[in-house]
Amino acid sequence: MDNSKEKLKFETYLTDKNLKHTEQRVHIMDIFSSAGKHLTAEEIYLAVRKKHPGIGYATVYRTLKLLCEAGICRELTCEDGIKRYEYQSQDEHHDHLICTKCGVFVEVVDPEIEKLQERLFKLNGFYPERHRMELYGICKKCSK
Amino acid sequence: MDNSKEKLKFETYLTDKNLKHTEQRVHIMDIFSSAGKHLTAEEIYLAVRKKHPGIGYATVYRTLKLLCEAGICRELTCEDGIKRYEYQSQDEHHDHLICTKCGVFVEVVDPEIEKLQERLFKLNGFYPERHRMELYGICKKCSK
DNA sequence: CTTGATATTGAGAATCATATTCAAATAAAG
DNA sequence: CTTTATTTGAATATGATTCTCAATATCAAG
User: Fold this and answer.
1) Lowest CB count within 10 Å: A34, B30, B68, B70, which one?
2) pLDDT in tens, B65-119
């Protein structure tokens, strides 16, 4: 996966905020392009550790926070109470279908649902900010 | 709020499972009818404490788990990572509109959205189990 | 290439919500 | 009223995440 665009975005963010461009931060960014999405901090920590054995949890958490602020990552608070981080190449919103057996995350968007959600906000006198929708079920593979 | 129906449900549950009908358990049940819904364990603990000063956190958590098992409560994993418990008089499902300023929870259901969610499951080859949808925005009161 | 100012790191300790342990207390069946 | 199994509360443990702080690394300016 080519993540040069996101790398540039991160670099720009760091420069703008007068933050430093460190080896650790780059390693953590790279995990997302190689190891996939929807990773827990622990998964990221273990993955980075393979390339950079000395890294600590604190750095992982700090960098994830930075990546979220930079709009490169999104933090998901899952039902098991553990946060997962998803790499967000674009700014587009999406929701998730999650398999309760294997835990796979599938990203989905349904424009009709989005429209109805807007209606729900309006009907209840709310000014809409964002939403989150998770559909739990059993994926095709697991139901065989 | 009349919670005699739920009380009966809980009593039946306890009897069926050979569990005991204790003062503490009744107090915790009662909180929901007096103090409202979508409470954190801490809020429940503090509320029960007013009537029953000796109660411990352990009992609160244990009882909340029981109430969930009995189908009287539902546990919500919120974005702040803190679980909230909602009293569920009926078995009917609903979603939430949440104000990001005052934190109020409004329960909503949209049959059309529900239908489209089923379609999303099907389209992606998932066997549906449940879902969760949270709409975050600013309520009428707070946007004045 | 040095220097100096500032940001960052990693180890470990702290925190916060929640769960567990265990001896003492209590409910409920006989 | 006794017996037996369950429940309780206090304290301790846990697991995820955050903070502290001294040592280290980055980077701009000389």
Assistant:
1) A34
2) 999 999 999 999 999 899 999 987 666 889 999 999 999 999 999 999 999 999 9
- Percentage of the residues of chain A whose pLDDT score is greater than 70: 97
CATH code at position A138 = 3.30.1490.190
Check residue A91 and give its pLDDT. Answer: 67
pLDDT at A89: 64
| β-strand pairing of B83-87 with B73-77 | antiparallel
Best CA proximity match to A97, nearest among A109, A111, A107, A87 = A107
Name the residue in chain B with its Cα closest to that of A106.
B124
Instruction: Give me the domain span that covers residue A44.
Output: 4-87
Number of domains in chain A: 2
Distance, first Cα to last Cα, chain B: 30
* CB proximity list for B52: less than 8 A, separation 6 or greater: B23, B24, B27
- Residue A15, chain B, CB below 8 Å: the answer is no
